[in-house]
Amino acid sequence: MLNIAQEPAGEKTLIMHIEGELTIETVAELRESLLEAFAAPWKNIQIEADNLSGIDFFGLQLLCAAHRTAASKDKVFSWQSERPGFLDEAMLTAGFTRHCGCSLCPPGQKCMWI
Amino acid sequence: MSDQHIEVFREEAAELLASLETALLELEESPQDQELVAQVFRAMHTIKGSGAMFGFDEVAEFTHEVETVFDLVRKGELPVTGNLVSQSLSARDYIRSLLEEDTEGEVDRAQGQRLMEIFRSMAQESSPKAAEQHDETPDPLEPSADAEQDLAGEATYRIRLRLAEDISLSGTRPEGLLRELSELGPCKVVAQPELIPLLDTLVPELCYVHWDIILNTSRGINAIKDVFIFVEDDAEINIDVIDDNDSVDSDPSYKRIGEILVERGDISQEELDSILAPAKPIGQKLVDMHKVTTGSVQAALHEQEMVREVRSQRKTKESTSSVRVPADRLDELVNRVGELVTVQARLSQAANMRNDNELLAIAEEVERLTAELRDTSLNMRMLPIGTTFSKFKRLVRDLSNELNKKVDLKTTGAETEIDKTVIEKLNDPLVHLIRNSLDHGIESPETRQAANKPATGTVLLAAAHSGDSVELIIKDDGKGLDRDAIFTKGVERGLITPDAQLSDTEVFNLIFAPGFSTAQQVTGISGRGVGMDVVKRAIDNLRGNICIDSQPGEGSTITIRIPLTLAIVESLLVSVDEDNYALPLSIVEECVELSQEDIARAHGRNLINVREQIVPYIPLREEFDVPSEPPPLQQVVITSVNGTQVGLVVDQVIGQHQSVIKSLGRVYRDVQGISGATILGDGSVALILDINHLAYRAEQAG
Questions:
Q1: What ipTM was estimated for this complex?
Q2: Is the pLDDT of residue B133 over 50?
């Protein structure tokens, strides 16, 4: 079960609150919401995942894809504040922990996984 | 399989079982500790694997059941319960009896069957899946995969994993595979995200990532392949050994990033060479030039880091590796060193008599070397006393269950080292003392609560070095000794007179007197088998001493002091007439003169006034029936035994001597007052005095 809520913060920023489990069962839902958000004129799309109770590899892959999409559209996709600490273990297991961003990551912008 | 190998397996298994017991007991206290669960699992696993390899099929078959259960515990499918720990401890005992069947006699096979049933049902309760796996008992004729893994040795693998995009359709979750890999050993996983499409073309249920994994494991390549057994048709898997024990190249610095990337096929050597000119980290340069992705560099960095780490660890391990030596060979070495010490004393004496400077210099050099050799060889026999502490944990656990009491055993100073022989001989007295504390010292939880004490009693077992001795303390917070009851019994037994003015320590020491065992039951100090006199004798035989302190309602403290080694002792050499005697230096307090006037002043009683304190003494001349006349000025060596001062009157104090202790042989076994002999530099023999017995005899004689 995944609950997604969108909350504009100023003119350029949209905050997406996600709550529940971001797994293979729910990634499609979030993808739809993200596609909508990227199609709109928001410059910054921020994820707030403090109430996320679980994430699997497909969840991580989707967030990675969103970040790459943002880079290609000259937008910024990032955590609303800090990355929630509980993600670290899932990232470590699935190998997402990073020293530097991927080839699409624009210079000066922080990768989701650093 | 040669007997020697089997013997080595037995020894190793015994060590594993000992550590298993400790781990199980700790697990009972902290059931959530995954590291302990893993430790128990590993121990079972190794016993099973090597058991099958060395022909102990029954051990392997039995251990398999326990291992299965701990595997489930490890995976979080079964909880750690008191029952599981109890059954596992029984299983551990059963495995030990199977291993020792040749020497210890017939094993109760029915008990083994019962335990196997219990573990099987535990496994079945956990999950139907586990029950299915259950029938796979290891084939005893073939070395099992586990045995194989142990033979394989540690190696570092580079694994490149590309799963089919639609892998999720088969129900496989990539993180499950990766997690299983990381259970094999230290593992670094790098996901390569470069092929993840943008959101508009992304099918979020497909897998676009591939992985570079660096894994260090001793489980062998087959264990890695087993992880991928269900996905091998839907995945591209490359496994390369990049470093192992047989690596010719053992340089801890390992390869450079460029070399790794070329080897992995991420870049060609030519491309690398052409780029190497400007001075920037190679990984950065390659990324800047879009030759490789940051993910590839990251994976290469992990590989470099892990192999370097493993190699440097291996180097440290090699330098601290140990050699297994039979204990009797060490004893032989210590004996030889003992003889050398004796010869060295002769050399020093001869050099002194000749007054030859060159010879004196050589003698001094030999003395220094001998002392070093002595210390080194004695150190080789030293073991941390903690090896026996775990046995006591078990004892306390079992006994408190039996007695329906709650007792917590705390230990400190487990790292204190002491001679192996001393540790072995300490075992029985300590078991007896701890049993006493539990049986008669610690009260039942109800009584304790009524007395405003915590329901759980505490027994502290502490060890610490103190000079050339080790001090062991057994302290409980039970009800303490009943001074009056002991005093009354002492009077009844004729050990003391009713009007005797005794200190608490003197009264408590009465329980060590032979023949006090019946009184012990009445006063509630002991009960089972050996009495406290046996404990005392065992400690005496170790040339140690024991004393008791107790406060009513607060508990008792028993302090045991024993010398570090039984082989060589620093002693004070004295003489009576023409005979020499040695006293352990650790108990000597001071030497004072005894003139004819002092003797006359005491009116025939063997007492001397030392700084206004009356000290009783034993004239050795009378004790050993030496017929000659004493010199006009004799010497009193004042010793302190169990807190009581006793003097020994001798003709002359010769000085400090390093005595190599020789036993007197069977014929003199029952001679009291003498604990051994030592050979002096001139080849003559000096008897080593047993002050405890001399004092006891003098007391008896009145």
A1: 0.93
A2: no
